[in-house]
Specification:
CATH superfamily of the domain at 61-177: Hotdog Thioesterase
Radius of gyration: 22 Å
CATH topology of the domain at 61-177: Thiol Ester Dehydrase, Chain A
Number of helices: 4
Distance between the termini: 49 Å
Structural class: alpha+beta
Strand order of the largest sheet: 1-2-4-5-6-3
Strand content: 25-35%
CATH class of the domain at 61-177: Alpha Beta
Order of helices and strands: HHHEEHEEEE
Helix content: 25-40%
């Protein structure tokens, strides 16, 4: 019996060593790949690492953090830091990132008002792009227009640092009671 326990412990140690070796190879491979990247590509990689880092706790999901979103509790608005991680090929805020920004901003406004055991899901959202998003950050200001038993209607206006409107959205969200 003792021999079997010893063999089991040896097998566990081998498995642990194999995982560590695989981890070390992955890290070495990543470091080699980083050597060939341009500055903006390195900034994107850095943003990706920050979005999944346990040192960057946030109520936001990783996609929101990856795209540079943060919630300003004091002003009840969402901020999107601009950079290569959310820019299009022309160097301005990418339309899909702006759409996601509006969706997450309205969603956060709703989440902050939910009762226990309630969930919210986006049903649909319309987006009007008005001006290109540039500068160092964009600000999303949201408003709840209707709060019903099963649906919520919210709007979001996205501004640049000069307070010029960049985009506006209107969305319908489904309110679900957890059973």
């Amino acid at each position: 019996m003792q021999v079997l326990l010893n063999l089991l412990n040896v097998a566990k140690d081998v498995e642990k060593n194999m995982r560590n070796l695989k981890r070390e190879r992955i890290i070495e491979n990543i470091i080699q790949q980083l050597q060939d990247l341009e500055q903006d590509q390195l900034e994107t990689v850095q943003q990706a690492i920050l979005s999944i880092s346990p040192q960057n706790p946030s109520r936001l999901h990783s996609l929101g953090k990856l795209l540079g979103f943060s919630w300003n509790e004091d002003k009840e608005e969402m901020i999107m830091e601009l950079g290569p991680f959310n820019a299009n090929i022309y160097g301005v805020a990418q339309g899909g990132a702006l759409y996601t920004f509006a969706d997450v901003a309205i969603g956060f406004k709703i989440l902050n008002q939910l009762k226990e055991k309630q969930k919210v899901f986006t049903l649909e959202m319309k987006m009007n792009f008005i001006k290109k998003g540039s500068g160092s950050k964009l600000i999303a200001q949201t408003e709840i227009l209707h709060w019903g038993r099963k649906t919520i209607i919210g709007q979001c206006r996205i501004f640049d640092e000069s307070k010029d409107i960049i985009a506006q959205s209107l969305g319908t969200f489904y309110l679900e009671e957890e059973k």
